[in-house]
Design goal:
Layout lengths: L3 H6 L3 H7 L7 E4 L5 E2 L1 H10 L5 E8 L4 E7 L4 H9 L8 E3 L5 E3 L7 E6 L5 H5 L1 H11 L4 E6 L4 H8 L7 E3 L3 H7 L6 E5 L5 E6 L2 E2 L6 E2 L2 H11 L2
Parallel strand pairs: 1-4, 7-8, 8-9
Antiparallel strand pairs: 1-2, 3-4, 5-6, 7-10, 10-11, 12-13
């Protein structure tokens, strides 16, 4: 099972610095053994471990400094998650959409399934909804289904979606499917083929670095196109 704490808090040095870039306090980086490092020393650690994720375990604001506790991870949890599930069957599920229609492995048999695992508390999930709706419109048809399970209740989901465009078929109260897949972070995008086998998994929301606006991950588009040609 994925380590929930590290999966939810794993970020690169870049994002850690951005998050606290507005503070005028000096930053002190502390490893799990309590060793303290300056920013320059931390940058050296990051460079020496290129390719390995840095997990921010805790951030503490002191009177005179900001203490950032970190750990260099041996394995990227997102990579481990993909290795665990790609090529495996999607776990058995049966969920109702917002109108009460039932969606299950059986009802979606012989259809390509694109899944967006999201949460009402996930800001990146909410921001990418318009571009995901555009993606759904591009492929809309009988051979492909776009579903969006969320762990929260229908009431919570409806409250969030009352002000947002999202054309995926939303499936509230999907915690059993999240648990079966050990999903503890959001968003995740799955492509499941017509035989019910998970073909691709992508984590996180994609952002255009020039505009800082959400975009569709091109890898997701490629995975959908590839699956449709089979």
């Amino acid at each position: 099972m994925l380590n929930k704490r590290l999966l939810s808090l794993t970020i690169s040095c870049l994002f850690a610095c951005m998050a606290y870039g507005q503070s005028t306090k000096p930053k002190v980086y502390i490893d799990p053994k309590g060793q303290r490092y300056s920013r320059t020393q931390f940058d050296s650690i990051t460079a020496a471990n290129r390719g390995k994720p840095i997990a921010t375990i805790d951030v503490t604001e002191k009177d005179k400094e900001t203490e950032i506790t970190f750990e260099v991870m041996a394995v990227n949890p997102n990579d481990a998650f993909r290795e665990k599930w790609v090529g495996k069957p999607l776990p058995t599920f049966s969920l109702k959409d917002r109108q009460g229609n039932v969606y299950s492995n059986a009802s979606l048999k012989n259809k390509l399934i694109v899944i967006n695992f999201w949460s009402t508390t996930c800001i990146p999930c909410l921001k990418e909804m318009p571009v995901l709706s555009d993606l759904e419109a591009k492929y809309k048809g009988d051979k492909i289904v776009f579903i969006a399970p969320a762990p929260e209740s229908a009431e919570q989901v409806n409250r969030i979606l009352s002000k947002r465009k999202f054309t995926y078929t939303v499936l509230p109260k999907a915690e059993p499917l999240f648990s079966a897949l050990t999903i503890e972070g959001y968003p995740y995008h799955f492509v499941v083929d017509q035989a019910g086998i998970i073909q691709a998994i992508f984590s996180g929301a994609s952002i255009n670095p020039q505009t800082n606006q959400p975009i569709v991950d091109e890898r997701l588009v490629e995975a959908i196109d590839q699956a449709l040609t089979k």
